[in-house]
User: Which sequence fits this backbone?
């Protein structure tokens, strides 16, 4: 369904020569996205975007100054995990009612099976279909690892360092990659818990093939205003 304009104010559009992926504003000059989105040399981010086909006025366009891809990312193996990247912007975004920083989860905050989360983006509306022109949202409940790792679901492709959500008729689709998995915390706030990583190759809305996300909380490290991606061998099973 179409999202209410600017209701996910940390959502950004990542563009090279055209929109390629989504992302999340986590600091005025830092954006979180998926490693598999980074294939070109030059990128910009668009903030306060809603309708791709219109210049609506509040958009901010900022070039990417530096790209940091997870050191263990392997672009020949998306299902190996570590699909996360950080983008440092050339200048700070202007924070206003349409551009906000995402809330990041606490390290020990566990997601629970069926916890309601939304995936957002301008990706394809269905497999092989057109890309959305306005920002879309889809309700994707979290799928616990005990379910996601079942052989008729994702099996061993669902590592314990990943988060699964969805698996019914709704999912992320091509073009949503890198965007946020927005989950409501007990305090009523929205937290960005994951980065959209992959869907089933046979189609976006394949039953028992939930969208797979890179969890944010075990992958980010903040150090005096700078962020780095952390390589963690520690099992993240406790998170779901």
Assistant:
């Amino acid at each position: 369904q179409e999202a209410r304009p600017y209701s996910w104010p940390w959502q950004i559009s990542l563009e090279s020569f055209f929109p390629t992926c989504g992302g999340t504003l986590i600091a005025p000059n830092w954006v979180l996205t998926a490693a598999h989105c980074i294939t070109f040399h030059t990128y910009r981010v668009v903030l306060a975007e809603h309708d791709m086909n219109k210049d609506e006025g509040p958009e901010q366009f900022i070039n990417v100054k530096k790209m940091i891809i997870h050191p263990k990312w392997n672009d020949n193996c998306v299902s190996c995990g570590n699909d996360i990247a950080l983008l440092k912007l050339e200048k700070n975004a202007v924070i206003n009612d349409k551009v906000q920083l995402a809330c990041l989860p606490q390290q020990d905050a566990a997601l629970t099976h069926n916890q309601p989360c939304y995936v957002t983006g301008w990706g394809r509306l269905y497999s092989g279909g057109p890309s959305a022109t306005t920002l879309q949202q889809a309700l994707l409940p979290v799928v616990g690892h005990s379910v996601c790792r079942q052989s008729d679901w994702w099996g061993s492709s669902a590592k314990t360092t990943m988060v699964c959500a969805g698996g019914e008729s709704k999912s992320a689709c091509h073009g949503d990659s890198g965007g946020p998995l927005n989950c409501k915390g007990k305090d009523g706030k929205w937290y960005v818990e994951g980065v959209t990583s992959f869907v089933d190759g046979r189609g976006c809305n394949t039953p028992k093939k939930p969208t797979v996300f890179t969890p944010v909380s075990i992958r980010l490290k903040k150090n005096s205003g700078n962020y780095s991606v952390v390589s963690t061998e520690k099992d993240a099973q406790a998170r779901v």
